[in-house]
Specification:
- It contains 26 helices and 10 strands.
- By secondary structure, the protein is of the alpha+beta class.
- Strands 3-2-4-1-5 form a 5-stranded antiparallel sheet, with helices on one face. A 5-stranded antiparallel sheet has the order 8-7-9-6-10.
Length: 597
């Protein structure tokens, strides 16, 4: 009965993962709750994942990455990417391969991609190129680089923890070392880098050019200000379409406020009245001429808290990305009371190829959406510190303090050396590194909570119990037996290819954490039954779950670039299929060589 209940819960979770009816972390919590409520797992067994070394290490690694970013340790790289030395897209891709990818082997790749998306977009905008030519290679380089070490991705850490736990249950020595994956990952990284440089440019589409041009026209340098239509203005009684405002001047009317109501474009046929307030984007010269002719006057800040646009001269327009796991996803701007919550106005929304400017309040936000925001600088600085929106423009050049750059880098090296040489466990070195960064001032205590991606912690911790249930109820053994019957006469290479293929397909439609939890205990049992080193099977699981190239759902960085790049699913399939085929064939081959099978 426990096995049947576990199987039903597993099927339910798979359906919810594939249909995205609920966020992945909510699916994990639902499964964990059902396993406890049905008695399959005790509370201690189901909640063990939240006390696992993998979760604690993840918490520490997010904080360490935040410290390195805040200290300015990566500013030189940003300057190199944004400078004039990079003249061709291929040069930028080469930089991704040479520098960005290896960096993802020691830092969380999600903040790396979040930091560099605006740099790549700005580079493309200056050269008139669509960012779809570069954003997927950026994501792919960080995904490939994440497998170079154990700490490169959360998937690696989760698999390491699960292999130790499953090894204790099944009687083998589980667990990975810091550089266990490197002999396999390094040659494949070089091959993948060559693919990015020489093959990928021929497969990447030119997407989102129209949307980018419109967004650029909305956010290009200009004077953003709120004006009022005087009672004696020639605009009174006219529509914007028939008035001289947009016929004689290079003016964009971004918003109209009348009384307590606000109206977004299009409103060309709306008749203007005295006292109407307009949010304009125009040059300073045009604004002065409009004032001199008494067509408009500068509006005083509104007294009704939060209704007016205050400090207009310090207003900025920026793009902000909605990352996976943001609490904003699944709700409309109206439901969120977005303007009041963030003191920011959404001017437009970009979703893939679609640019939405009408009825924005009713649009339900999704992960990967890009919002064009207009807000005071102080509000945008607050958004920079939020994990629910990734501001894709550099608001200001100031950093907390560049004097902490070199101590922060030394602390990061200290963590790598101590764990790599086996002087202390990785989780201990990472925790000590976080304390050291706080002590030297690279991190403030308040930064720790903002640095952590809590949705990933919830997902990893809650799914951990699934693996325990599969082993405890015998489902893992049953699934392994059926696969053994299928592959029993095959050589080790054929078995590992099968394990890799099943796991990578699961990753593409569910998530990498779910794929690891589902297949790692099954793969370990297959290895034991066929007298193949179970750790060889575990290594194939790690690579298959980490390397997602053909859908935006398998890995967070793919989803992060999917919207800004304006990609379609078929673009990713065409681009990622050759990489997936190469990895499916070569990872098992290199694993056979490494484990002497």
């Amino acid at each position: 009965m426990d096995a049947l209940i576990t199987l039903l819960i597993l099927v339910l979770a798979i359906v919810l993962f594939i249909t995205a009816a609920l966020p992945p972390e909510v699916v994990g919590l639902l499964a964990m709750g059902l396993l406890m409520a049905s008695g399959v797992l005790s509370p201690a067994e189901a909640l063990a994942g939240f006390a696992s070394p993998a979760v604690i290490t993840l918490l520490a690694m997010f904080a360490l990455s935040a410290g390195l970013f805040r200290s300015g340790a990566l500013d030189r790289l940003r300057e190199l990417m944004g400078g004039n030395r990079m003249k061709q897209p291929r040069q930028l891709i080469q930089l991704f391969v040479v520098a960005i990818g290896p960096l993802a082997g020691i830092l969380a790749n999600t903040p790396i991609v979040a930091t560099l998306i605006p740099v790549v977009e700005a580079w493309c905008q200056r050269r008139g190129l669509p960012p779809s030519r570069l954003l997927l290679p950026l994501s792919t380089a960080t995904i490939l680089g994440g497998a170079l070490t154990l700490i490169g991705t959360s998937t690696n850490l989760l698999a390491n923890d699960l292999s130790r736990s499953v090894g204790e249950e099944m009687g083998f020595d589980g667990g990975l070392q810091l550089f266990t994956l490197t002999p396999i990952a390094l040659p494949l990284y070089l091959l993948g880098g060559a693919y990015l440089i020489w093959v990928a440019p021929h497969l990447l589409p030119e997407r989102n050019r129209d949307g980018l041009e419109l967004l650029a026209s909305l956010s290009r340098d200009g004077y953003l200000t709120e004006v009022e239509v005087p009672a004696d203005s020639i605009l009174v009684g006219q529509t914007l379409h028939n008035s001289r405002l947009q016929r004689r001047f290079d003016v964009d009317v971004l918003e109209l406020q009348r009384g307590g109501e606000r109206f977004s474009p299009p409103f060309a046929d709306r008749v203007l009245s005295g006292g109407d307030r307009l949010l304009l984007r125009c040059s300073r010269a045009d604004l002065l001429r409009l004032q001199q002719e008494h067509t408009v006057s500068l509006a005083a800040p509104a007294a009704s808290g939060g209704q007016g646009v205050e400090g207009t001269a310090t207003q900025r327009m920026v793009e902000a990305l909605l990352p996976a796991g943001s609490f904003l996803a699944g709700a409309s701007l109206q439901e969120l009371r977005f303007r009041q919550r963030f003191n920011a106005t959404v001017i437009a929304l970009r979703r893939g190829q679609e640019l939405v400017r009408e009825r924005l309040g009713q649009v339900v936000l999704r992960a990967g959406d890009v919002l064009l925001l207009q807000a005071p600088l102080d509000s945008l600085r607050g958004l920079q510190a939020s994990s629910d929106l990734v501001v894709m423009d550099k608001i200001e050049h100031e950093l907390p303090t560049t004097a902490k750059k070199y101590p922060t880098i030394l602390i990061g090296l200290f963590v790598l050396v101590l764990s790599g040489l086996g002087i202390m466990p990785l989780v201990a070195a990472a925790c000590l590194g976080v304390v050291a960064m706080v002590a030297v001032g690279s991190l403030r205590p308040g930064d720790l909570q903002q640095a952590v991606r809590w949705e990933l912690i919830l997902l990893v911790g809650s799914l951990y119990g699934f693996s325990a249930a599969l082993v405890k109820t015998g489902l893992a053994e049953e699934m392994a037996t059926r696969l053994v019957n299928l592959t029993g006469d095959w050589p080790a290479y054929g078995v590992l290819v099968t394990i890799y293929l099943i796991t990578t397909l699961t990753t593409e439609v569910m998530s990498n954490a779910a794929a690891v939890v589902l297949w790692l205990p099954v793969a370990a049992r297959i290895g034991l039954d066929l007298q193949i080193d179970p750790m060889a099977c575990v290594v194939c699981i790690v690579f298959a779950a980490s390397w997602s190239f053909i859908t935006p759902f398998g890995y967070q960085t793919n989803l992060m670039v999917f919207g800004p790049g304006g990609y379609r699913i078929q673009d990713m399939v065409r681009y990622g299929a050759p990489l997936t085929i190469l990895a499916t064939l070569l990872v098992p081959l290199l694993t056979v060589w490494q484990f002497d099978l």
